[in-house]
Amino acid sequence: MKHLIHTLNKAFDNRVRLGVMAVLMANESVSFNELKEALDLTDGNLASHVSALEKVGYVLVSKQFVGKKPNTTYQASKEGKTAFQDHLTALEKLLRGPA
Amino acid sequence: MKPATDPLAQLTEIRAIMERSSRFLSLSGLSGVGAGVVALAGAATGHWYLHTHYGAQAFLRLVEGSAQERQQALPALLTLALGMIGLALVVAFYFTRRRAAQDGRALWDAPARRLLLSLAVPLTAGGLFCVGLYLRGAASFVIPGMLLFYGLALLNASKYTLDEIRLLGLTQILLGLVAMLLPGWGLIFFALGFGLGHIGYGLLMYNRYER
């Protein structure tokens, strides 16, 4: 039998990515700086993990300009939300242990 | 960075992040108690002022009096109202900052901004509307209006902060509607809603989260 641990999504195998998804689940649309504040991270660290989530299609990025300043906002995609929910369900199953 | 594989730790952290990033949780119950005390002191001052200038049954006489009389009383009442709001905000800010510092949380983050904005818009509109009511001869609706707009503002803001704020909002709305039916009882309802309401819910929140 496949061990339950393998049902966990590899994309969320990291605290930062997990945190990013958690923030995006609870909030409709979040700017880069808000995300950074909420998770207490540095620019580079956050940027690399967000782009990893963007690559697998879990996060949607939109770049706009507020005046002359670039303003990047992030949203969880439909696939991202489903994947995250599945991940949470898998975690709960692991916690409950084999039935 | 260590991969997060302990499921319990992961779930706990996810829940905490979701809460923290969407709600302002540092609101201190003592802020409510302080604002309530300010409101009671303000209601007493207002009562005293009207009594010394307009005699017994002052509130009712002002409500039913001439437009000129009301205009004369406006600067004093407006000063009192703004003074109360200012003082209540200072007290609320003090206790909330203290709680944020105790919990090691940022005071000025995205949920705090959303909370203040969702309060400020209905409160500004309501405040201007109440001044209009007062000057246009519907002064008996001023305090019900204040309670209603404040209740709606709290209801609107409650999705960005602690759940008790929603109940406080509903309480104010209910008091506002009852106050509308009892003109002349305005100051009593003011003291009930802004005074005792704040103190009651403030103590409740303090007991639940800060002890």
From TrEMBL, chain A:
Gene3D superfamilies hit by this protein: Winged helix-like DNA-binding domain superfamily/Winged helix DNA-binding domain (1.10.10.10)
An example GO BP is:
regulation of DNA-templated transcription
> In which domain of life is the source organism classified?
Bacteria
Which part of the chain is the Winged helix DNA-binding domain? 16-95
Which Pfam family, giving just one, matches this sequence? HTH_34
PANTHER family (UniProt xref): BSL7504 PROTEIN
* Protein name, UniProt field: Transcriptional regulator
Organism expressing this protein natively: Hymenobacter persicinus
TrEMBL record, chain B:
User: Does the keyword field hold Transmembrane?
Assistant: yes
Determine the domain of life of the protein's source.
Bacteria
Q: Recite the UniProt keywords alphabetically.
A: Membrane, Transmembrane, Transmembrane helix
Q: Where are the transmembrane segments?
A: 24-50, 73-95, 115-135, 141-158
Q: By what name is this protein known?
A: Uncharacterized protein
Q: Recite the lineage of the species.
A: Bacteria, Pseudomonadati, Bacteroidota, Cytophagia, Cytophagales
